[in-house]
Amino acid sequence: MPIVIAQHDETLTDVMALVVVHQPPVLIATLDPDNGDLCFTYVIIGCADLELVAPYAEDKTIKDLYMDAAKASSITFRVDPLPHSALAHALPPMRGVSGVKYPGLPTGAESRTA
Hints:
Elements: E1 3-5, H1 12-21, E2 26-31, E3 38-44, H2 62-70, E4 75-77, E5 86-90
Parallel strand pairs: 1-2
Antiparallel strand pairs: 2-3, 3-5, 4-5
C-alpha cells in the first residue's frame, strides 16, 4: 500500500493531488507538531457509490482531515476538483515521546550494519 508523507499544515487539496497519483487506497502519514505523534489516515478515493458531499474548505489541512476522521469510525469527504467523494479513516496515533522508539522500529543501538 502506498504511503504519502505530508506535513501537518499542508492543504488537503495539495495532499490529495499526491494521493491521486498513487493507486488508492493509500495511507497518509503526518507528525503532530504538538506532541510528536505519528498519525496515519487511510484514504480511499474515486468511489462513485459514495454520497457526493460538499467539498472541504480550501484552507483545510491534512491534520484537519485526520482530526475530523478521528471523531468517527470513518468520514466521507471531497476536495475540489475531485468529481467523487472519498472515504477517510484515522488510525490511532502512534505516541512519540523524546527518547522512546516507535513500536516495531529498532533503535540505533539495536540496528546492525549489513
